[in-house]
Amino acid sequence: MSLKIYSIRNKEKIYGYLFINNNLDDCYIELIKDLDEYPAFFNMFALNNEYMINSDWTYKWIKERIIPYERQNINNILKDNRIPFYNELLMLISSKAHSSMDDNYIVKTTYDKIDEKTKNRMNKDILSFIYSKDNNGLIVFFKNGETKFFKIDKTDDVPFLSPFNNEIIFNVKKRYSYLNLYDNGIDIPLSYNDLKDYINKNVLSSSQVTSEFGFSRQYLNKLKKNNDIESLDNNLYLRENVASYNK
User: Fold this and answer.
1) Residue 145 region, left (φ>0) first, then alpha (ψ -120 to 50), else beta?
2) Could you say which of 120, 144, 168 is where a domain stops?
3) How many domains does the chain have?
4) In terms of residue numbers, what domain contains 65?
5) Which of 5, 26, 47, 219 has its Cα between 20 and 30 A from that of 163?
6) Average of pLDDT values for 198-207?
């Protein structure tokens, strides 16, 4: 994902980085770890050793620093600042996040200028994951090559990976950051490449089954309907199930 990156700072120091997607409809913040002090809003996260601030909380920070949509003369303000429509991120960028509450602001930067400790931490972003509903857990594949199992409370919600690959989200209140998953997960000896190799070798599509085992598609559908061969979702089949029936 291509991102716009801004450092969050004052004249003396940088506190962290604001990441905005190119569609200007999502964002999040990474704080620099172990600073002597943080602005009040960020301090409540740092005190809990939380250095990735998700999009929901980031938008709360943004709304404290921009003119609200309800302002009576908002259309004139947009016109004066050459902003085509009201958008929280456009408003923030236009004002450089200046606020009367403090002396902090944002400055556009690039990935290579992010401090090394933060970049190393971000290398633990999530590559992919498997939700094991039977075991109430997540098998999480990280970009640095490690894999961990993370136990969760039982839920019927379907999880998804955030657009920034830094959270697994079940619902508004049930979301797990990559740092939480990485620091509190249990190491397991399974790599993402191992999983891909297994799937490539052992999971077959309908067309692969008909081509490799000589079944007609009509015959395969009959076997599936009669439960002679168990299928996975989306008409996928385990090679061992097809091979076992074929024998």
Assistant:
1) left
2) 120
3) 3
4) 3-120
5) 47
6) 89
Same domain flag for 20 and 88 = yes
Quick one: pLDDT at residue 159? Answer: 95
Q: Whole-structure pTM over 0.85, yes or no?
A: no
For 56, phi then psi, to 5°, come to: -60, -50
Residue-wise pLDDT tens digits, 114-135: 999 999 999 999 999 999 888 8
Same domain, 172 and 205: no
Residue 41: φ, ψ to 5°: -60, -40
Structure tokens at 84: 């085509």
Q: Are residues 230 and 185 in the same domain?
A: no
What would the two tokens of residue 239 be?
Answer: 């090679």
Let me know whether 75 and 183 are in one domain: no
Q: How many CB atoms lie within 10 A of CB 237?
A: 24
For 97, phi then psi, to 5°, come to 65, 20
Q: Which tokens hold the place of 184? A: 């509190």
- Token digits of residue 128: 């992919």
Distance between CA 162 and CA 52 in Å, rounded? 13
Shared domain for 16 and 96, answered yes or no, is yes
The helix/strand/coil state of 221 is helix
In tens, the pLDDT along 91-116 reads 999 999 999 999 999 999 999 999 99
Domain limit, last residue, from 120, 136, 168: 120
Q: Report how far residue 17's alpha carbon sits from residue 31's, in angstroms, rounded to the nearest whole number.
A: 6
